[in-house]
Structure formats: structure tokens, C-alpha cells
């Protein structure tokens, strides 16, 4: 029996879209390329817009229960050690945006989404089922599996990530764009962090062509470290081990953050990739979601939030057939493209040097808390599902 909705990809966006579709009465089959449904990674920052989307999926309270609320976003000059500014995330921020700003381990968020899907009668989860393409006509769409299998339904949602096979068949815009930036990630137990360095803050240490971010995750039991270096990496790679000595050398331009960088071990490295915004990602009964539709650099901390917004928006429109998919695209296209551009543009903020860094510091230091909140309101204030 055909499913009403086929979802290619069992990541955060794919599972969220399955829950949203099922909540509107659709039967869903999720096709995951991996041998099992699992999610690797470290911390995710969730602004209020992401938590509001999780509320619509019935997982907002559970997420808040395991997440670490953040007191401030702290901006440091990694060269001089100057505390440039902090965006407070306390009562005023929560009142304005209707939710806290939190961080959560990616695996914890994924586990909640997966368990919710397994507990939902209308959702079927199929691992080891990589989608290689699709065929559609006026009556339905068929997902074509790499092993030769076929799964039919009324709509296909490509949530299969930045290397999406569904996107390749639908948009055909080639390989992702190489940013030339290498990011190094590590997680360390919080008890290894000197007490005076512990805080409930997301902290950026910024310097010429590099920056370093750290924040607590897993209820404060661990410190998540992420260091970026604009090193002109010629080819993308993912998950490559990196020595602590190499990371410290690459981030030598941040002497003020060395005391924290030295805590890191078991580093892994990735070259960041994204894509340019496109005029559309929907064709008939097929559409894209999350990184398959609008992959972005992580510097605006909105990748997961935007995928969750996609899922909630799409779930309420799937019953309208191809017209509903076009309406989903209309609602999401401009907003996600703006976040993609903002994520790229933020590199200039984090990686400024010399006089440009001094001007940046002065401008940020002059901003009031209200002005800082104003600057992010277009992203953080969105409440998907409100009437339009």
C-alpha cells in the first residue's frame, strides 16, 4: 500500500516533517540511506523560533527539559581579550520572543524526534533505503531506491541533506559550494574546565580569518568547542581527526582564547560547504526541505531551526496536493534565502582584522540590549503556524 507522503532522509528535518505530516492525518514512510536511524554531532543552538516549531510538533516541553538555557551571547576579541559586548537572553529577551534561547546535544534532540516517530502509528521508518531519484505523473510520485526498489505515494519530500539525490534530480545544480573554511569540533567533560571559565553563555572569540565558539551542552555536563579557520581548504572533507597541536597552531591568531583551546582533545575537522539560494525547489509532487533545500553555514545558528520551521509549514499544506507544495515554497523561500545570506555575511563580522576589527568592536559595544535584540528579531521572533 502506498504511503500518502514519502520522506527521503531520516535526519532531524526528515523526522520533523514526518511528525508534522502525520499530525495532519497523512501516512508517512521515511526512507533513510543509513543502516540505522542515528545522528552524530555535538551541540545545536535553538533560538525561540526553533523552539516554537518544536512546540507545534509536541516536543517543545521535552526539549526544554533536556536543554541548557543560555544567559547571554558573549562576543570577545580573541586578539586583545576585550569583552566587546553581550546580548542578554534573560527575562527581557524571553518576554519579547516568547521562549528562551537554549543549546541541546544533537543526539538528544534526534532521539526525541525518533521516539516520537516510532510512537506515531501513521509513520513507517525504513533504514538502508537510499533514494536515488524519483518518477512522477499526474496521479502520484515514486521514489526510486538505489537498490532497485520503488516506493509510491502522493508526495515526495527530499530531506536527504546537502548532498541530496532528490535535489540533484529536481534542481540539478551540481556539487555544494566549498567555503574554504575548516571547522574543528570537540566535546570535553565540564569537570575538566576550570570553574572560573564555566558559564551559561555562548561565547565567540574572534580574530583575523578565524574564530572560536564554546558553550555548555547536555545539561551543562560537557563543553562544546568549535573553532573555524579560513584556510582556503581546496577540497571538502568531513570528520577527519585533527591533533590538538594542529588546532592550536591554526588558531594561533586568538591568543586570548588559548587557555580554552588547550582544553580540547579528540578534535574532528570538516570543511564547511553550502549552496547559493535558488529560485525554487518544488516540482509537481516533489519538494525539498532543510539542508536539501537551503543548506547554510552554521554561523547564524539557524540550520536546525529553519528545518523545523520547514517541517511545520509543510505539514499543514500537504493535503492541498501540488498547489500546497508550491505554497510551502512561497512561504519559505525568501526567509530561508535571507538566513543563508546572513550566515555567509557573518564571516566578515567574526573574521575581521586590524582597523576593520576595531570598527566592529566599537559598533557592537555601542549597541544597547534592545538594539541587539532588534538585530536578531527577524530570525528569532518567527512563530510558524501563525495566520498569514
Secondary-structure blueprint:
Layout: E1 3-8, H1 12-23, E2 28-31, E3 43-46, H2 48-56, H3 60-66, E4 68-69, E5 72-77, E6 83-88, H4 91-97, E7 102-105, H5 106-118, E8 123-126, E9 131-136, E10 141-145, E11 150-158, H6 165-170, E12 177-189, E13 201-207, E14 210-217, E15 222-230, E16 240-242, H7 244-250, H8 258-261, E17 267-274, E18 282-283, E19 286-288, H9 303-315, H10 321-350, H11 354-365, H12 369-380
Parallel strand pairs: 1-2, 1-11, 2-8, 5-13, 11-19
Antiparallel strand pairs: 3-7, 4-7, 5-6, 9-10, 10-11, 12-15, 12-17, 13-14, 14-15, 16-17, 18-19
Helix pairs in contact: 1-5, 1-9, 2-3, 2-9, 9-10
Low-confidence stretches: none
Overall geometry:
globular
User: What structural category characterises the helix and strand content?
Assistant: alpha+beta
Q: What is the CATH superfamily classification of one domain? A: FAD/NAD(P)-binding domain
Using only CA atoms, what is the Rg?
21 Å
Supply the key terms.
eight-stranded mixed β-sheet; alpha+beta; 12 helices; FAD/NAD(P)-binding domain; 388 residues
Explain this structure.
With 388 residues, the protein is α+β, with helices and mostly antiparallel strands. It has a domain of 216 residues: FAD/NAD(P)-binding domain (3-Layer(bba) Sandwich), CATH 3.50.50.60. Helix content is 34%, strand content 28%. The radius of gyration is 21 Å and the shape is globular. The mean pLDDT is 95.
